[in-house]
């Protein structure tokens, strides 16, 4: 089968190569992969920008959609269409950027009926995480009548999907981006306005003017600290990303004086019930036309070059990878 393979000897290398299927890792379900994706984490892995990969050699790809070929797991039989997001796949267990994958059936969910395999991968971990962030805001009582919601890293995968979902649910979304040329795109997804990400990127005051009812932050560092410092009394900031840095140079003031909630969002080891809920909500709350606008498709042979572009912040929305070309 064709696969992207990451090796680390004297140097760290990712290459498109032929891999013998006999080398697939242990698992109770073998899946013929139709599509995978490039999430931020996949591009970190492929470029070696961060120590995402913990076993070598590694097939990256934290997401896949495909068809079960063999299964000894009670929930899956040959021919079933399935989706995988996370669980350390593409980090410690061979992932989706290959013609086949062998996985634990407990990690899989059935392909949601609302989506084709390609659409499921246009959503991918980024979109499923955006949904988890929105569910976090809802769980903490943030409602559309309370005011503006900030989405940072807006033109990226998580940001784009979060905007679309929030707008469909009736929230007033302000998109923070470093790419002003993407303003029309962000508004087409439902943002009512944009702000320059530079406004949030520098060290700010412990508390600023109260503006946001809630926020979805994919950037971290000063951006996350400033989002918390400018969130209104009782609001919630869902933090899922580190595109701007993994530090958090903040004070406790927003939390102890304004009762702001910082809601940490992990998608990788999220229990199955939460995943099923998120995918069900994606089926009802994400506009299928927006999925088309958010995604673009590449072949497996383009994945390494595109990972470099994603690390340079040049990729918009979501990248779907057809692993069979
Ligand atoms: P993308 O690469 O698609 O988007 C990231 C966006 O962040 C860019 O498009 C850009 O948006 C913005 N950005 C990039 N560099 C910087 C910078 N130096 N400073 C400020 N903003 C920057 O990535 P994803 O949407 O797939 O992922 C976003 C983040 O969320 C990543 O950190 C990823 O690791 C994390 N994540 C976490 C998950 C979890 O389980 N917690 C799951 C999925 C993702 P713009 O051009 O609009 O400014």
Give a topology summary.
Layout: E1 2-8, E2 12-18, E3 29-38, H1 40-47, E4 63-71, E5 81-85, E6 100-103, E7 109-110, H2 117-139, E8 148-152, H3 157-168, E9 172-177, H4 183-188, E10 193-196, H5 198-201, E11 212-217, H6 221-229, E12 231-239, H7 253-258, E13 261-264, H8 272-285, H9 288-294, E14 295-299, H10 303-311, E15 318-322
Parallel strand pairs: 8-9, 8-11, 9-10, 11-12, 12-13, 14-15
Antiparallel strand pairs: 1-2, 3-4, 3-6, 3-15, 4-5, 5-7
Bound molecules: NADPH dihydro-nicotinamide-adenine-dinucleotide phosphate (NDP).
What is shown here, in short?
This protein is of the alpha/beta class and 325 residues long.
Structural description of this entry:
It is built from ten helices and 15 strands. α7 (253-258) links the parallel β12 (231-239) and β13 (261-264). By secondary structure, it is an alpha/beta fold. The chain has helices at 40-47, 117-139, 157-168, 183-188, 198-201, 221-229, 253-258, 272-285, 288-294, 303-311; strands spanning 2-8, 12-18, 29-38, 63-71, 81-85, 100-103, 109-110, 148-152, 172-177, 193-196, 212-217, 231-239, 261-264, 295-299, 318-322. α2 (117-139) packs across α3 (157-168). The mean pLDDT is 98. It folds into two domains: 2-111 and 290-322, Alpha-Beta Complex (Quinone Oxidoreductase, Chain A, domain 1), CATH 3.90.180; 125-264, NAD(P)-binding Rossmann-like Domain (Rossmann fold), CATH 3.40.50. Strands 3, 4, 5, 6, 7, 14 and 15 form a seven-stranded mixed sheet that branches. The radius of gyration is 19 Å and the shape is globular. Bound molecules: NADPH dihydro-nicotinamide-adenine-dinucleotide phosphate (NDP).
């Amino acid at each position: 089968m064709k696969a992207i393979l990451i090796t680390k000897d004297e140097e760290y290398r990712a290459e498109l190569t032929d891999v013998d299927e006999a080398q697939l890792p242990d698992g109770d379900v073998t899946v013929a992969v139709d599509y995978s994706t490039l999430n931020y984490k996949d591009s970190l892995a492929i470029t070696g920008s961060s120590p995402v990969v913990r076993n070598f050699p590694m097939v990256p790809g934290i997401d896949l959609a495909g068809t079960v070929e063999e299964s000894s797991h009670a929930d899956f039989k040959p021919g079933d269409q399935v989706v995988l997001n996370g669980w350390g796949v593409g980090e410690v267990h061979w992932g989706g950027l290959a013609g086949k994958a062998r996985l634990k059936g407990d990690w899989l969910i059935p392909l949601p009926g609302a989506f084709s395999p390609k659409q499921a991968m246009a959503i991918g971990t980024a979109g499923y995480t955006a949904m988890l962030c929105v569910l976090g805001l809802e769980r903490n009582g943030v409602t559309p009548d309370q005011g503006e919601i900030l989405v940072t890293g807006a033109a990226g995968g998580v940001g784009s999907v979060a905007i679309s979902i929030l707008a469909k649910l009736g929230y007033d979304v302000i998109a923070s981006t470093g790419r002003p040329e993407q303003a029309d795109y962000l508004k087409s997804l439902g943002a009512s306005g944009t702000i320059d990400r530079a406004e949030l990127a520098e060290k700010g005051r412990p508390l600023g003017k109260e503006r946001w009812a809630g926020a979805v932050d994919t950037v971290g560092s000063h951006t996350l600290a400033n989002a918390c410092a400018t969130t209104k009394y009782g609001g919630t900031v869902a933090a899922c990303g580190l595109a701007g840095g993994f530090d958090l140079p903040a004070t406790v003031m927003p939390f102890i004086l304004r009762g702001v909630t910082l809601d940490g969002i992990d998608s990788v080891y999220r229990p199955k019930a939460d995943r099923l809920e998120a995918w069900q909500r994606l089926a009802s709350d994400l506009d299928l036309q927006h999925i088309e606008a958010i995604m673009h498709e590449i072949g497996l042979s383009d994945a390494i070059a595109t990972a470099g572009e994603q690390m340079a912040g040049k990729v918009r929305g979501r990248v779907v990878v057809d692993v069979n070309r």
